[in-house]
Design a protein that fits this description.
This protein is of the alpha/beta class and 171 residues long. It is built from 7 helices and 7 strands; from the N terminus they run βαβαββαββαααβα. Helices cover 51% and strands 19% of the residues.
Length: 171
């Protein structure tokens, strides 16, 4: 049975991981957090002193995921999306959070100074949404609000309905 590949993307702190893990648990799709994958496989090409974080080796990430993606049934969670091959995903969900909520979430994660401000600006200017729109067909890119537990439940229900319909239509 064919199953879809889904990309969950958005600024750090918008709820991708929470939604992705819940979605995987309810649908039996495979959940891949690219940050965790990179950490486990040391898929880095350096360290960014300014943002105090490792720099992802995008080519090695793609090599690592390629076989899984061909099989289908994968939920990929990452805060960037322009380096993944367009052919990988059947649908892309960009999670969006109001700045007041996002600020508190990032601050609680220890984000400070430039890193905090740049991530807030990224959300204000819809950077990830625009990146998704320029990287994938417009009709597969969808924005979802992610401000509250109720939003998460609605998003979960909506995506599960989409998955069920996709499976019916493609098998």
């Amino acid at each position: 049975m064919r199953r879809p590949n889904i990309l969950l993307t958005g600024t750090p702190g918008v709820g991708k991981t929470t939604l992705g893990k819940e979605l995987a648990a309810k649908t039996n799709l495979v959940y891949v957090n690219v940050g965790d994958l990179a950490k486990e496989g040391q898929l880095y090409e350096g360290y960014d002193e300014e943002y105090e974080c490792p720099v992802l080796d995008e080519d090695r990430v793609i090599d690592e995921l390629e076989d899984k993606m061909i099989d289908g049934g994968v939920i990929v969670d990452y805060h960037s999306c322009d380096f993944f091959p367009e052919r990988w995903f059947n649908i892309v969900f960009v999670l969006r959070t109001e700045n007041s909520f996002l600020y508190d979430r990032l601050e609680s994660r220890g984000y400070r100074g430039k890193k905090l401000q740049d991530n807030i600006q990224c959300e204000i200017f819809q950077t990830i949404y625009e990146e998704a729109m320029s990287s994938y067909k417009e009709e597969i890119v969808h924005q979802l609000p992610s401000n509250s537990p109720e939003d998460m439940e609605r998003n979960l229900d909506q995506i599960i309905q989409w998955i069920e319909q996709w499976i019916k239509d493609n098998n």
